[in-house]
Task: inverse folding
């Protein structure tokens, strides 16, 4: 088993690039390097600039590689497709031109990074029902099929034009979140079009067993996100009318090893399924609390190394 651990800007509260409280992206890269990471995600479109020379200089300074770019946007609306394809072009043009030194040349993964992570997001009616499969509105068949068509178009463009593998990330508060939606997604999007990025924290948040899902869908998983959940805060926010990222601002996500998810069991599972690939640690938070990000991402990485990763 060959696993590499990476980080993500959301550990510094970077989810909305328009949030006025975001830390400078240069600081995020510097602290990720200080914590011991060798790879990091690009974060939401618009946070790290689409400037190859500036970004490359900062990556080299901090001995980091970009593991993935992300489209974190409305994948449903017909009017959005043009904008989504512009994001594909800009993100893939950048990440494929940046130096990548995180992967050992002798290793052979199904699809090599950097990946393009696809996340549906931007629907108030679902955001407030994150984690509640029994209450959340579902898309009509027509709307669902349109989203699937958009995903296929995005994934094919990324692969055919840039050689970038698209991976679909079920996300709390989006229209691909719950068990029935992920299972339908897997029927509608063949593995040769796009893989899965399963996120342990989002699975648990949305009433699924992360260990079971990683085992059952091992043949569809190209990339994994790790989060941990503070069970006390989780039970509290499940009883509130609250947006997903407002729940994160309350501390529902915690450093790996300090929450409810059993990462020693998941390590054994990943050995059983012979997972070879990349795992990115995430801990969404309010960016106004990013002064503790370096401490937390350091603790998360140290914990995973201590249990064998």
Result:
């Amino acid at each position: 088993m060959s696993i590499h651990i990476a980080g993500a800007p959301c550990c510094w509260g970077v989810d909305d690039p328009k949030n006025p409280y975001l830390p400078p992206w240069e600081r995020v890269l510097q602290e990720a390097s200080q914590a011991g990471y060798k790879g990091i995600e690009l974060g939401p479109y618009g946070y790290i600039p689409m400037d190859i020379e500036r970004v490359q200089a900062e990556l080299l300074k901090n001995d980091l590689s970009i593991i993935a770019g992300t489209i974190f946007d409305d994948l449903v609306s017909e009017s959005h497709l043009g904008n989504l394809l512009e994001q594909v072009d800009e993100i893939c043009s950048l990440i494929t031109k940046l130096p990548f030194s995180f992967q050992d040349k002798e290793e052979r993964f199904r699809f090599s990074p950097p990946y393009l992570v696809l996340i549906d997001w931007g629907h108030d009616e679902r955001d407030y029902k994150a984690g509640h499969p029994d209450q959340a509105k579902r898309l009509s068949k027509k709307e669902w099929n349109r989203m699937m068509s958009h995903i296929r178009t995005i994934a094919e463009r990324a692969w055919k034009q840039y050689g970038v593998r698209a991976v679909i990330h079920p996300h709390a508060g989006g229209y691909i979140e719950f068990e029935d939606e992920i299972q339908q997604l897997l029927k509608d999007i063949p593995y040769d079009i796009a893989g899965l990025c399963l996120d342990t924290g989002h699975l648990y948040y949305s009433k699924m067993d992360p260990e079971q899902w990683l085992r059952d869908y091992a043949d569809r998983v190209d990339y994994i996100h790790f989060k941990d959940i503070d069970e006390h805060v989780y039970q509290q926010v499940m009883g509130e009318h609250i947006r997903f990222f407002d729940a994160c601002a309350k501390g529902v996500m915690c450093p790996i090893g300090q929450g409810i998810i059993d990462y020693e069991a998941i390590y054994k599972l990943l050995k059983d399924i012979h997972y070879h690939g990349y795992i990115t640690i995430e801990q969404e938070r309010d960016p106004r609390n990013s002064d503790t990000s370096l401490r937390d991402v350091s603790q998360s990485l140290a914990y995973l190394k201590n249990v064998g990763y």
User: Anything to note?
Assistant: The first strand starts at residue 3 and ends at 6. The radius of gyration is 18 Å.
